[in-house]
Design brief:
With about 325 residues, the protein is an all-alpha fold. The protein is about 70% helix and about 0% strand. Strands 1-2 form a two-stranded antiparallel sheet.
Length: about 325
């Protein structure tokens, strides 16, 4: 066993446990789980695996949101720091800048890689799933729960006429290639939309031109390109996993942006408007500057006497 295989062994063991457990559950529902309905059973099992993995990553996602907000809050201070050391290229200045920058990250609890954290944590799981399904594709038993019979069932399983073990590059016919290509495009599109949603609605306009946001804009286009290039080699079963995970992320992002938006962002203004209509907006947020009209005096005007009126005319 190579080093990578040794590292991924416990991950593959856990993946097989979850995957086979869901397969046993859905096999009770379908009349022919190892025959005509094998594809549906395996896809539903993969969806179940996604739900377990993403639910386990919810604490990480919450930490990511907090870190991203802290990154936004610290942008003005970071801009001052960059301005302070602008044009200073000597070694001592670079070291001081790096030290002060790290101190600022520590002080605000920020992490520049926070937006990539859930994705990075999923990569070993994704790799383990890829290897598990790749072995099953060739009807090889897994490390524990994926028996040879289950591997044969997976390898021969089809959904919408396409084998789950096939890829765009190994597709047996044009119809499967078209299906694989569509899935790659949808997978890439959902990845792009999710990140674009954050940048368009959940960012404070004051930090749009910051270095942090420029990096996020680059990643916005880099990640989809990576997935589009590598997606042609993914088995359809792996793409079902990734598509389900992307849809989970989109729904999760929508709820977070709607209910816990970044202060000062368009999403925050929309939330305040919704709460104001329902009369649930906190008093501090509801305070607005209103031009006050001069108070109308209720005191009765006293009639002027004839002598006082004559004096005014003079």
């Amino acid at each position: 066993m190579d080093i990578i295989g040794a590292i991924l062994w416990p991950i593959k063991w856990a993946i097989e446990l979850i995957l086979v457990s869901f397969h046993s559950l859905f096999s009770l529902i379908f009349s022919d789980p190892l025959g005509a309905n094998a594809g549906a059973v395996w896809v539903l099992s993969i969806v179940g695996l996604v739900l377990v993995v993403r639910a386990a990553l919810i604490p990480v996602f919450v930490k990511q949101i907090k870190s991203q907000r802290n990154m936004i809050v610290m942008q003005p201070e970071l801009a001052k720091l960059q301005k302070k050391y602008k044009g200073k290229t000597d070694r001592e200045s670079r070291e001081k800048f790096a030290a002060e920058q790290m101190a600022l990250y520590k002080k605000t609890g920020s992490n520049p890689l926070s937006s990539c954290l859930p994705l990075l944590l999923q990569m070993p799981i994704f790799g383990g799933l890829f290897l598990t399904l790749n072995d099953a594709q060739y009807k090889k038993a897994g490390v524990a729960f994926m028996t040879e019979d289950l591997a044969v069932s997976f390898s021969d399983a089809t959904l919408f006429g396409a084998k789950l073990s096939e890829t765009f590059l190994t597709a047996s016919n044009t119809a499967v290639q078209i299906m694989a290509a569509v899935m790659v495009v949808v997978m890439t599109g959902t990845q792009f939309i999710t990140q674009r949603q954050i940048m368009a609605k959940n960012q404070n306009p004051d930090v749009q031109n910051s270095q942090y946001m420029q990096t996020q804009k680059i990643l916005l286009y880099v990640f989809p390109v990576i997935f589009m290039i590598s997606g042609v080699s993914f088995p359809l079963a792996v793409m079902y996993y990734w598509l389900t995970s992307n849809f989970w992320t989109m729904g999760q992002q929508y709820l977070v942006i709607r209910n816990m938006p970044t202060p000062g962002s368009p999403a925050a203004r929309e939330r305040d408007e919704r709460l104001a209509k329902k009369g649930k907006l906190p008093q501090k947020a509801a305070e607005t500057v209103v031009e006050e009209e001069p108070p109308v005096s209720t005191q009765r005007t006293q009639p002027e006497g004839k002598k006082r009126a004559k004096k005014k005319k003079k």
